[in-house]
Amino acid sequence: MIRKLGQEVRKHFDLQMKERLPQFVRYTAPSPEPGLRLYRWEFADDLFFFVALCRSIHTEAFTVEIASTSRPHWEPHGMVAGPTNEPRNGFVHFRLNDLLGQETRQWDLWWDFGPPTDLGTSADADPAARLDTFLKYVFFDSDAAREAFVACALPLVPSAVSEAIDYVVKYANPYFEGVAQRYGGPDMRKQPTA
Q1: To which H or E segment does residue 173 belong?
Q2: SS3 labels along 110-164
Q3: Are 39 and 17 within 8 A, CB to CB?
Q4: Are 90 and 69 in contact (CB under 8 A)?
Q5: pLDDT tens digits for 46-65?
């Protein structure tokens, strides 16, 4: 993700998490992963919930991952296939889209600021022309093109982040609540926010 665009996404994500999910606080992993911003809720001494903002390193997009773990620290690891699978070393980690209902579930849910929909991807387009258009988008053929793209994308950030947080509230909170109830904790809606 272009640096300026990534900074704006992080800023708005921080603000929205603080406002709408204050039980989650910014968390810095011992071994930070590029493009990852973490928020942790310490539900109990041995139960932690994470929301991870994942910025693409190849495109102008971001997604959200969630996790529950008995350990207080985020560690790089492979994702579990979904929320109903067994934890791996006490850790369950998956993309937010795994919680969407079957009728609305997407293979992978990303909030994407590009490429333009008219990237020359129609079936009858010349493959060389499609590649040329794609490369101009990915690498921007000039600083002016990059700046123009960022200027168009920046106003889209607040609504994209707001939609992502809406998904966390609607789909991840019930998941966290279910984990907490299986753990034996009280209903999370009654938990004080910190």
Answers
A1: helix 173-183
A2: CEECCCCCCCCCCCCCCHHHHHHHHHHHHHCCCHHHHHHHHHHHHHHHHHHHHHH
A3: yes
A4: yes
A5: 899 999 999 988 788 999 99
